[in-house]
Design a protein that fits this description.
Chains: A alpha/beta (277), B alpha+beta (367), C mainly alpha (227)
Oligomer: heterotrimer
CATH architecture of the largest domain in chain A: 3-Layer(aba) Sandwich
Shape of chain B: globular
Shape of chain A: globular
Helix content of chain B: 10-25%
Chain lengths: 277, 367, 227
């Protein structure tokens, strides 16, 4: 059975090889550097901007950064399940609350980092116009795409905002509820708006800016009108590099970082004293 | 002083009836004869342990293979059998050599010297030139020999052959039967041969069991059993023939002369020309209804063989009669089938002297 | 952000390695399970078969969360229960495990069909020659089903290559550590980096196409099939 022997050998070889390679991959990392390594859990919407800020930071400081980008909800579950993670940047307060209530936030080490704006978008060729938020009552869109309000922070904020407004005889949210298309993330919202005709979307300003060549902005919700969008950042209790983590968080509030945040459309918050929530 | 090879008592449910038999095998080579569907293959498979629904008792030598009362039912892999099924089942992913070697582990565990056993089997079955070939392109006869060889090389305690010649045409049957005889003579392993063709059973077996609808209807020495008036018609329809061992005496231009029987007896037979050298053994057969009788010494006759014999027995089969005649004491009786008219016309009776007339072309040679 | 080929190749290299490890991890238990299901009858066979199919039927995120809970600190395989920290979560080991879990049903299914296509009479013949069940599997069934098993392996590998939903939850999406080709595409899309996303997509398509093509050609009957 030569074929069979070959298969057996190939399998054993692959396993051994894989073991060796992955082992060497790990050890080479460790031996290469004495720099502390921070594992940063961050909301997916911050992928690009944090990478840029991270590059700056790593050039200046003797710290290596590793990012784990995902939806804030998933990140929360991962933090709770493992004892890993040095810093958590969440896309809203609620998820950070969960972490804090589980006792995973270093006392006094929670701060509000960024805000964002909600914008209403349409596809690039659309002829709609809006002057006031309540114009939504009249627009004959087929669907209103949002991040799923149950899970996506941007979608939850959007719904909250719509609920504060009303059309002539009913709440704005009720008026549009049957045309809402809940999407798994803001990327999908942009995709739906761009691809199907007659679809409006509500996303963050940052998302709009990242896709501005494919969609147009109809309306921007100013901070005082809309819900308080708050990106929170905190040091996690299981960190083994408190100082490095603190320096990274500080760096996020630095001028260099703020410039980059603004470039991407985020609203850096004033460097306030740590908030209690 | 008869050795007990195996004894069994079986009840196996089948489609239309049950196989219900009880038997003690006291000869080394036993045959099972019967029509298709009479239960022969089921018997074989049950002995192999492939019929889990069988109930009863099987003991082979000192080992109990099946005992329903004691909840013993040994799986096939523990019975030490060499099974040669009708469809051969040669392993397609192995060469001939690979197939022959597939029973190596068991043979070695049984204390056999596998290497010399393999050489022996290859020699007896003339498999030398086939060893490195794949099995897909083998002819029917070659497959049969490889399947036999594989079973033998596994050091079996019992050989089970299911219709060994059935899948072969006449020409191949003539060629393969001698191999089966060689296996029987050369290897001392007990054999159970299942067939619906009397010839291979007569040529191989020391004892014959006849099955009908799942029941044993006769057991005994093959020729005796097959010439029973209630069994002969069926045997005849399945190809019963008189079978003799013979040795080549000398060749002529168109024919060969052979000596019948083992002893240096004066009975010679003229058979179709063969190519084997003088002194070599072969098997010949002639059908019972191909033999003519004459009460006077025939002259001016085309038949090459005119052999004196004495009638022993006449049995009526309706319009035909079954006659046994003795040529010499050293040979089995010859079976002849004639119409009752002919018997009357010639006034034949036990003790009559006759000449057996056999055409050369009526003789089949197995070699 | 410009396309960075090195991150792309890093993701591809890592994904190939992990998919390979995952396949190696799955093949032996998968083959044994497939043989068990193909050739034996036993109580609970249906239950086993159903359990094995679950990862195919459940949403990948559900499987991901199940794995997350299993390896969590307080979970059945976590430090609190076992006494030692297996350190699975958010490491490459979680990637391999997630890929293995998601590809196991496919491997078992394909291998099982492959075994069922082997004439059981050959195994019966092997039994009469004294072969026990494991010996039959190794000497008869496996060699006669190599093509099918190879297809199962490739299918498992492909599934592992494309695995995302479960992996990203239990292993995270850490570039250089646990980012696979799929999660790299996800990240690129999330950050609106179309060029990067498209580049990675093309690579993923290429790998997927090659794998399925190979599987197809293995499933085609031999040209030298005899009547």
């Amino acid at each position: 059975m030569p074929t069979f022997q070959k298969m057996k050998r190939a399998l054993i070889f692959t396993v051994l090889l894989g073991w060796i390679l992955s082992g060497s991959a790990c050890t080479s990392r460790a031996s290469e550097t004495v720099r502390p390594e921070l594992l940063v859990f961050a909301a997916a919407s911050l992928t690009d901007v944090l990478k840029e800020i991270g590059d700056l930071y790593q050039n200046q400081f003797e710290v290596d950064l590793e990012f784990n980008f995902n939806g804030s909800g998933v990140l929360t579950q991962q933090i709770l399940a493992s004892s890993k993670g040095d810093v958590f940047v969440s896309a809203n307060q609620e998820w950070m609350d969960v972490i804090e209530q589980a006792g995973r936030v270093e006392a006094g080490a929670r701060r509000e980092l960024l805000s964002n704006r909600l914008v209403i978008i349409a596809d690039a060729g659309s002829s709609w116009e809006m002057e006031a938020a309540t114009d939504l009552c009249q627009l004959d869109f087929r669907f209103l795409a949002l991040g799923n309000p149950e899970a996506v922070p941007a979608g939850r904020y959007a719904k909250q905002w719509l609920e504060t407004l009303s059309c002539r005889d009913q709440g704005l949210w009720e008026a549009v509820a049957d045309r809402v298309s809940p999407a798994p993330d803001v990327r999908a919202v942009v995709g739906q708006v761009e691809a199907a005709h007659g679809v409006l979307g509500i996303v963050y300003q940052t998302d709009y800016l990242a896709a501005r060549d494919r969609i147009q902005r109809l309306y921007t919700v100013s901070p005082d009108q809309g819900p308080a969008i708050r990106y929170a950042v905190s040091r996690l209790t299981h960190t083994t590099h408190s100082q490095a983590a603190e320096s990274w968080i500080e760096f996020l509030f630095s001028d260099a970082a703020r410039t980059l945040f603004e470039k991407h459309g985020f609203l850096p918050l004033e460097d306030e004293l740590p908030t209690q929530d | 002083m008869s050795r007990k090879f195996f004894q069994l008592r079986l009840q196996v449910p089948l489609d239309r009836f049950d196989l219900e038999v009880e038997f003690t095998g006291s000869r080394r080579v036993t045959g099972l004869f019967g029509a298709s569907g009479s239960g022969k293959t089921t018997w074989l498979e049950t002995m192999a342990g492939l019929r889990r629904s069988a109930r009863g008792f099987i003991q082979f030598g000192e080992t109990v293979w099946l005992d329903s009362d004691a909840s013993i039912n040994q799986p096939p892999e523990q019975r030490g059998i060499g099974y040669v099924p009708q469809d051969h089942l040669l392993f397609p992913h192995l060469t001939v050599r690979g197939n022959l070697q597939s029973g190596r582990q068991r043979a070695a565990a049984g204390g056999h010297d596998f290497k010399s056993m393999l050489e022996d089997v290859v020699d007896v079955l003339e498999l030398g030139s086939l060893l490195e070939r794949g099995v897909r392109d083998l002819s029917g006869g070659e497959r049969q020999r490889v399947a036999l060889g594989r079973a033998l090389c596994s050091g079996p305690r019992l050989l089970l052959l299911d219709e060994p010649l059935a899948s072969l045409d006449l020409h191949l049957r003539q060629r393969i039967l001698p191999f089966l005889q060689r296996v029987r003579d050369h290897f001392d392993v007990p054999m159970l041969v299942v067939s619906h063709n009397p010839i291979e059973l007569q040529a191989l077996c020391e004892e014959l069991i006849v099955l009908e609808q799942g029941r044993i209807v006769a057991t005994g020495e093959p020729l005796q059993v097959l010439t029973r008036p209630d069994i002969f018609p069926f045997a005849q329809s399945q190809g019963f023939e008189n079978i003799w061992s013979a040795r080549v005496r000398q060749h002529s231009e168109h024919t060969t002369s052979v000596v019948l029987g083992k002893a240096d007896s004066p009975v010679t037979l003229t058979i179709p020309r063969v190519d084997t050298r003088e002194g070599s053994s072969l098997t010949v057969s002639v059908a019972a209804n191909e033999i003519l009788l004459s009460t006077t010494e025939p002259t001016h006759l085309s038949a090459r063989n005119r052999i004196p014999a004495r009638l022993e027995n006449l049995q009526s089969l309706g319009h035909h009669q079954l006659i046994t005649a003795r040529i010499t004491a050293g040979l089995p009786p010859v079976v002849i089938e004639l119409t009752s008219d002919a018997i009357e016309d010639l006034d034949l009776a036990p003790g009559s002297s006759v000449y057996l007339l056999i055409k050369t072309s009526s003789i089949t040679v197995y070699q | 952000m410009p396309t960075t080929p090195d991150t792309a190749f890093e993701a591809v290299r890592a994904t190939l390695l992990w998919a390979g490890l995952s396949t190696a991890l799955v093949m032996i238990p998968g083959t044994l399970l497939a043989y068990l299901l193909a050739r034996f009858e036993f109580r609970g066979k249906q239950v086993l078969s159903t359990l094995l199919s679950l990862p195919l039927v459940l949403p990948p995120t559900a499987v991901g969360y199940l794995l997350l809970r299993t390896f969590a600190q307080q979970g059945p395989l976590g430090r609190a229960t076992l006494g030692i920290d297996l350190d699975i979560l958010l490491t490459w080991k979680a990637v391999v495990i997630a890929c293995a879990v998601m590809s196991l049903p496919l491997v078992v299914r394909t291998a099982r069909v492959s075994f069922e296509n082997v004439n059981p009479r050959y195994e019966m013949m092997a039994r009469t020659l004294g072969y026990g069940p494991l010996h039959r599997l190794l000497a008869i069934t496996l060699p006669l089903s190599t093509r099918g098993l190879l297809a199962a392996m490739i299918l498992g590998f492909t599934r592992a290559m494309g695995e995302f939903g479960a992996t990203v939850i239990v292993a995270g999406n850490i570039p250089g550590r646990t980012q696979t080709l799929s999660s790299a595409i996800f990240s690129a899309q999330q950050s609106g980096n179309e060029p990067q996303a498209n580049f990675l997509l093309v690579i993923a398509l290429g790998v997927g196409f090659t794998a399925v093509y190979l599987t197809e050609s293995l499933s085609r009957p031999r040209k030298t099939a005899r009547p």
